[in-house]
Amino acid sequence: MDRQNMQSESNRGVIAKPVFLGNAPAIERVRVAADRVARGDAKVLITGESGVGKDVLGRYLHAQSPRARSPFVALNCAGVSETLLESELFGHVKGSFTGAHRDKIGKLQLAHRGTIFLDEIGEMSLRMQALLLRFLENGEIQPVGADTPAARVDVRVISATNRNLPEMVAAGQFREDLMYRIKVVHLHVPPLRERADDIRLLVQHAITRTGSQVIIDEEAMQVLERYRWPGNVRELQNVVEQLAWLGHDGRVGVPDLPPALLAAAPSAIMRKHERRRQVADDLFQTLTSGSHKFWDHVYTLFLNRDITRHDMRELVRRGLTATSGNYRAMLHLFGIDSRDYKRFLNFLAAHDCNVDFRQFRTGVTATPIERPAVVGAPASPIHRPPLQGGNVH
Ligand SMILES: Nc1ncnc2c1ncn2[C@@H]1O[C@H](COP(=O)(O)OP(=O)(O)OP(=O)(O)O)[C@@H](O)[C@H]1O
Ligand SMILES: [Mg+2]
Q1: Is residue 88 a contact partner of residue 94, using CB atoms and an 8 Å limit?
Q2: Which one of 19, 27, 234, 241 would you pick to mutate in the ligand 1 pocket, going by the greatest count of ligand atoms within 8 A of its CB?
Q3: How do strand 156-161 and strand 44-47 relate by DSSP bridges?
Q4: Among all ligands shown, which has an atom nearest to the Cα of 205?
């Protein structure tokens, strides 16, 4: 089933009440205007960058309107041939073109008494624009291949685009008369970077949608709030989906954020994490070189508060990376007696320093890490264990 038909199928079903979230003044203004125009039949043009929520706003408008109980039918005008688009919009009669095996009703007719959402209207060819204009002027539907109009329909038209229509008009790519027809009311959805106050709300909503219980810590949230989000709410949702399943023990910290976000993070936060990384690297080096053992050195530093819980977690992450997620294999690496396995796990749990080992289970065989022989410890190299190897349980 192609994209167009999939949309049409889903639109025939029951539509969940759309949520158009946001309390930032810029979005509040759009919602107030939407609530007001929803009551009437005026044609609405929704503009805004990709991923800002034009689709959501279109559905919201319909749901708020007196037409809410009638169909909302969406049609994406991009990426389909002109013939297919014409047939999708107006329907066709059997035999009107190759593959037209039977009569088909167009989306305008399916949307009778309801709303048609013409998405990416800026991508319509000039010929299609002329056909749409004719329909908007007389309300008549002429299916492809039919000699006479088949029906008159009552639909409310909402269009959306991320293109600049006046510029397209100036360049001769969009009909000026059509632009004015579809833009009786113009709603512009601002980019996410202009409503950073809503980021927390949208992040929380996106987490709930994933069904995960992940918690994003305060510093990571601040990075999310300051990022520019060129892909707007859609990008935010994608990032949250990744984080929901990658976070350590259900917590997401700054190191878990994708590189693009880290590159844009405030320098104070990054300096702090750079220091943490450095501390963890030094501790890891000290342990794996054999010059110190975990209980004598790292544990003591921790008790004396010379290193923090964050440093300890970073160190554990280094260990899990080196052992492909095998806590037991970390014992030898850190100079811990194998009889102290439980003690080690209990210590990490008691101080909230344990890290979910699953994300380190790559199954990739890496270079073995050697720890020089120390008195009382086996001298064999630690090989990255196989995927199923060593569990914390
Ligand atoms: N205000 C909002 N409240 C809740 N979810 C939102 C909001 N804005 C956007 N979203 C979500 O973000 C995603 C992108 O939104 P939408 O598809 O409406 O964007 P768009 O502007 O139509 O994008 P495009 O230009 O790429 O078609 C969707 O999953 C949508 O549910
Ligand atoms: Mg859209």
Answers
A1: no
A2: 234
A3: parallel
A4: 1
Please report how the helices 25-38 and 54-64 are oriented relative to each other, as an axis angle in degrees rounded to 10: 40
Distance, CA of 393 to CA of 389 (rounded, Å): 12
Atom of ligand 1 nearest to the CA of 205: 4
Ligand showing the shortest atom-to-Cα distance for residue 235: 1
pLDDT in tens, 138-149: 888 988 888 877
The percent of residues in the chain predicted with pLDDT above 70, rounded, is: 87
Report which residue type is found at 203. Answer: V
CATH topology of domain 3-190: Rossmann fold (3.40.50)
Phi-psi region of 228 (alpha: psi -120 to 50; beta: other; left: phi over 0): alpha
Task: Name the burial class of residue 274, with classes exposed (0-12), middle (13-18) and buried (19+) by CB atoms within 10 angstroms of its CB.
Answer: exposed
Overall fold of domain 194-263: Helicase, Ruva Protein; domain 3 (1.10.8)
Helix (H) or strand (E) holding 255: none
Question: Which is it for strands 215-216 and 251-252: parallel, antiparallel or unpaired?
Answer: parallel
State if residue 20 touches ligand 1 by the CB under 6 angstroms criterion: yes
Torsional sign, CA 33, 124, 232, 61: positive
DSSP letter, residue 298: I
pLDDT in tens, 330-380: 999 999 999 999 999 999 999 988 888 887 876 544 444 555 544 433 333
Q: Nearest Cα to 7, choosing from 101, 91, 90, 77?
A: 77
How many Å apart are CA 284 and CA 8, to the nearest integer?
Answer: 57
Our answer on whether the CB atom of 190 is closer than 6 Å to any ligand 1 atom is: no
Maximum CA extent, the chain: 96
Q: Phi/psi of residue 104, each to 5°?
A: -135, 135
Q: Is the CB of 238 under 6 A from ligand 1?
A: no
pTM of the predicted model as reported, rounded to 2 decimal places: 0.73
Domain assignments of the chain as residue spans, ordered by start: 3-190, 194-263, 267-360
Ligand 1: which of 233, 237, 238, 240 to mutate, most ligand atoms within 8 Å of CB? Answer: 233
Compute the C-alpha angle 167/172/174, nearest 5°. Answer: 70
- Strand, coil or helix: what is 274? helix
